[in-house]
Structures are given as structure tokens and as C-alpha cells.
UniProtKB/TrEMBL annotation:
SUPFAM superfamilies: 4Fe-4S ferredoxins (SSF54862), P-loop containing nucleoside triphosphate hydrolases (SSF52540). NCBIfam families: PRK13409.1. One of its GO terms (biological process) is translational initiation. It holds the Pfam family Fer4. It comes from the Archaea. PANTHER family: ATP-BINDING TRANSPORT PROTEIN-RELATED (PTHR19248). It comes from Nitrosopumilus maritimus (strain SCM1). Residues 43-72 form the 4Fe-4S ferredoxin-type domain. PROSITE patterns: 4FE4S_FER_1 (PS00198), 4FE4S_FER_2 (PS51379), ABC_TRANSPORTER_1 (PS00211), ABC_TRANSPORTER_2 (PS50893). Keywords: ATP-binding, Nucleotide-binding. This is ABC transporter related.
Amino acid sequence: MTHRVGVLDHELCQPKKCGLECIKYCPVNKSGADCIVLNEESKKAQIDEDICNGCGICVKVCPFDAITIVNLASELATDKIHQYGPNSFRLYKLPTPKKGEVVGLLGRNGMGKSTVVNILSGNLKPNLGRYENPPEWDEILKYYSGTELKQHFEKIKQNQIRASIKPQQVHQIAQAFDGTGKELIEKYDERGVSRELIKELGLQNSVDQSLKELSGGELQRIAVAAAASKDTEFYFFDEPSSYNDVFQRTGVARVIQSLAKLGKSVMVVEHDLTLLDFLSDYIEVLYGEPSAYGIVSNILSTKVGINVFLDGYLPNENVRFRDKAFSFDVSSTSTDEFQEGSEIVKYPKLTKKYPSFSVEVEPGQVRKGEVLGIMGANALGKTTMMKMIAGVEKPDSGEVDKKIKIAYKPQYLQNDVDVEVVALLDKANGSPVEGSMEEEQILDPLKIKKLYTKSVKNLSGGELQKVAVASCLLQKVDLYALDEPSAFLDVEDRIAVAKFLQKFVRSFGKSAIVIDHDLQLMDLISDTMVIFEGESGAAGKATSPLPKSDAMNRFLKSLDMSFRRDEKSLRPRVNKLESRLDKDQKSSGNFYYKN
């Protein structure tokens, strides 16, 4: 027995531009019933899930990919926690908060993480799928009788649960609060810890500035400090790593872990697997169909949870939610693989001085078929180095060979343009992309085609990032320079983009420079690496390109963090601080695993 989920993307559905194929070709409609009709109010298609036979014809014939029809196992019909309306997103099951533990939520974007956060914090009352006649609290409590969540919902009903939420979009805080970072943290500080948090999160130099003047990373850490300083039973952190470098991410992790040590319930949504591994005691996987439905798995240990997610298979529940597993390659490209004279660009020692900042880059080269990774703390000049090589910024000393063409994807993306995605891609490509070879080579693997008719200003952060990466790669150049391509992408997209970029560079004899703070992504994507050291905001110094294992070892040592390979998935894993493996590796000077 199965039941059906029919979801319509209202933004993609454009009845005025199509021939109403979904209505015309639906076999249930042809038999005389009204399975798919045009809603009189919204003027969009509407699907009757009760009489839909799940044939999927409407999905195939819709020219705008606006319809999703999914057949679900019948047992899930009894686990529906919330549905927003007809043909809209629905959530099945809920994660369980645990006192004194950090529970990591791991899954794709569009799986209902914000719905989970709103329900567990008491901002949204679960309707058990009955959006027309929602149940009262007594019925909800009866539904959860015999579970740990019953107690949680009883406290919500009696207004005894206070939740502290660090939202995903930190820029909205700067718009909503007119004052300095210090004033914001002190406003919420109920635990008397503002001074300690400012120090732990490295905010000493930024808290006296107005929020409107701060960088994304500073705003993110101020938001973490404000959320952590409240005295509540329950804490949520939604993507706390965004905009922060690896050093700042470990500071954020320590602050979040300190709340669990106080006996609080903590939940974290995070797409940086290294940070999630480092931070979480347990993992709950969210899977399903983005923007259609989300299902929450049973609780798993961190190691098992991350491996299950990468496998795409939940053994305890016997559910496969992705048709392929993500694998990690053990081999690391050696410098010997590149032929002499295969340099795309060679640069001498480069220096650049600003009134209060200077950067020095040791000589190096980028070769054909190679991805050069650049890692280091924020404000050391990584982007400046990229701009000097790209010819966007002129060095004070040293000259870069000007004969090569470079495409540059900036760190901060503009989404205020009201043009269709396809027009933007046509411009980058120099000719229409629809039906082209580039569509097959770049846009299909990155799953961009579904976004063609969307306006750039309506894209989510992750969609915008993928369109920006695709626009960069469509340009006919020798070298692609990508600044933070992982920002706003979920774990699946991060791994997919990293693997695609590496394959693209190797297959077509191109070259790329990538700056990113996601250690796992950089380990996956880079052939050689440049490490930035120095004093943030004052002076940065970049090494010459190093073999990946030497560079990672040097960088992990500066973080006081050690990596091992997971014996099952072969992914890089962080050793828990002070564990036996951590001590053994560090004492031998081997912070990065040996292949």
C-alpha cells in the first residue's frame, strides 16, 4: 500500500506560457475525473492526491519542471507531522532534542530543517498534516504519548520552553538592529558571559562597530554569541559556519559544545562535514524530495550518521534515499604527474601594500589540468592574491604573465538583478545555452536547467551559488578562479560541485584556483595547495604551491587538529581532541593521514 505526494512549485508553474499539458494528458482526467485542475484563485495547477494514480505523466510533460509526484510507503502516512496546505511541503517525523548533547541535523536544503526548528522551538504548532482542521494540544500530546517528545511538547504547551535560535540569514540582524555588536550581545546576555564569548569568538576588534559595517563572518559570530548568551533550555544554530574561516569555525564549535556541557539541548544544522563531525554527539539525517517532503531518520552516532548520509542508505530503516553513494578517492595527485612546461600561468614573488595591510606571495605556477587550493584565515589576502593573478588587481612588485584569460567568481554574489537565469548563462557562454554542448557538459551535471526561467533575484543562496559557478565555467578561458564556491550549498551539492569541478578541469585540460574554508571540500578538490599565514587584517604571507599532503599537514598543525581516514567511507575525519588517535598522530608530527 502506498500513498502519494503531489507537490507543485508555484514559482515554476506558468499556465499562460504552456499548453496545460498536465491537465490535457492526465489519464485520470481522461477517464472523466478531476485529478489535475486549474485553481480559480491562484490560476495555477492543483492536484488531487487522493485520486492521483502516480503515473508521473504530468511530471514528464510539464515544460517547466513544476510538478513532483512521489509514491511513499504507507507507514509514513501515520508519521506526518506538518503540512502547509494542498500540494505543498510536508514533514514526516521529528528529531528528538537530547539534554547535554549536540544533535546535528544533516540533509539537503529544502528538506524541512526550518520547519523542524519552528516546531521544536514552539513557534509553529504541528498540525499532523491536517492543515484545514488543525488538532488541539491534547490531541498532539496523545499522538506523542510514550515518546521523549511528549515531555518537550508539554513544556511548549505550558510556555515552559524557551528556545534560542541563531538564524541562517545573519544579514537580516544588521537590518533589524540599529547598534553595535556589543550592544546586541549584551541585550541578550542572560548568563553574564558576553565578555568570555567575545574573546572565544575573536570579536574583540569588531564588537564596538555598528552591525551595518561588519563583514559576514563577524555578523555570523556575533549572532552565535547573542544566541549562546541567552539562558534557555534549548538552542538551535542554523549554519553557524557560513562566512567564517576554519579557525573561527573551531571557536564557534567550542562555544556550541560548552552549552551542551551545561546540560542544555543543542541542535545544529550544518553543511560543513568537518565541523559537524567535530561538533556533534549524534546525527539525525533528513531525506526526501527537496521542497516536496522531508523525513527525519532515527537518531545515530555521529560517525554512523555521516557515513549513512554519504552512502544514501539507512540500514536500520532499510531505506535508500539516493541512488549512488559518495566515494572519496584515497590517491592524491602527485606533482610528478604534470609534464614540464604545462604551466597555464607562472607568477614571480608578488607583493601588494595597502595603508594598513600588506600581502606577500611566494612564486609559483598553476598547471594544465590542475586545481590549486588556497587556504588560510580570513583577512590574510587570499582574494587579493587571486585578483593579482587574475589581473583584476595590480601588484606593487612582480608581474603576472598577461597572456592568459581568466574567469573570476567573486566571494559575494549580487542577486539584485531581475533577469532570467537562462539569459545570464547565455551571456556568459557567448551564445544560447539551450541545446548546446555546454548545456550537456556543465549545466546538466550541475542541475541548473530547472532554474532557467527563474529570475536571478528570486534564487535561494544555494541556487545563486550554483548559477555563479556555472556562469564562471561557461566562459571560454584558460583559468577559472572561484572564491568560496561552497557557500550556501548543502553537503550533497558541495561534494557534487567539487567532484564536477575536478573532472571538468582534468577532462578539458583547464586549470582552476579555488579558495574555500570547507576542509573536506578542499581535501577532495585540490591537487596542490597554497597556505596563507600571518596576522589577520595586518600582514599575510602565502607559500609557494605545496603537495597536498604537506600543505594539509602544515595547515592542520596550525589548527591543532588531526585528521584520519574513515575506514568505511575513506572520507577525512577529525579526531576528537585529546583522544588516543589525536595524541598519537600529533606526537609523530603527522596531523594529516598518510595515504
